[in-house]
Amino acid sequence: MDFIKNVSIYTDGSCLGNPGPGGWGAVLRCNGTEKELSGGFRRTTNNRMEILAVLEALQALKEPCKVDLYTDSQYVRNAVEKKWLAGWQRNGWKTAGKQPVKNRDLWERLLPMLAKHAVSFHWVRGHSGHPENERCDALARAQASRPGQPEDTGHAD
User: What residues bind Mg(2+) 2, as annotated (predicted)?
Assistant: First the structure.
């Protein structure tokens, strides 16, 4: 598959309490253009917001792209890079400890996006002054603090 565009995506999730009000933020950059995305829920978890930031950012791409994705979530990065997702699927969405995989609904939505795009994950240390990560954190926190957010109807972890 030929990927026409190279996109850099930065993501972060935030929760004020865990579970508690949460938000996610993403910054997408391509050919000198930048787009910010964010959203939130009245009650959710940090891990759900980290996954959702990646999912929403990838869904925003209109065509298959080569993506450099920067996240401070070891959970999200490892699930993909260390093949946890593939193992969970093979095991009927059970962990190595035979427990149900948390956030399965989001992982199942993310899988087609990972198949559509050529995604390389890069870990960045959170709250370390990385400008894009700090911006995503600000977007996520603003959403988590916003009144009137909907309920997260997924399964909290």
Answer: 12, 137
Report yes or no on 152 lying in a domain: no
2 annotated as belonging to a binding site for a ligand? no
- Tens digit of each residue's pLDDT, the chain (157 residues): 566 899 999 999 999 999 999 999 999 999 999 999 999 999 999 999 999 999 999 999 999 999 999 999 999 999 999 999 999 999 999 998 999 999 999 999 999 999 999 999 999 988 888 899 999 999 999 999 998 888 888 755 4
Q: Which alpha helices (H) appear in the chain, and where do they start and end? A: 46-59, 74-81, 84-90, 104-116, 131-145
State yes or no: is 40 an active-site residue: no
CATH number, domain containing residue 85: 3.30.420.10
117 is catalytic: no
Answer yes or no: 32 catalytic: no
Which amino acid appears at position 28 of this protein?
A: L
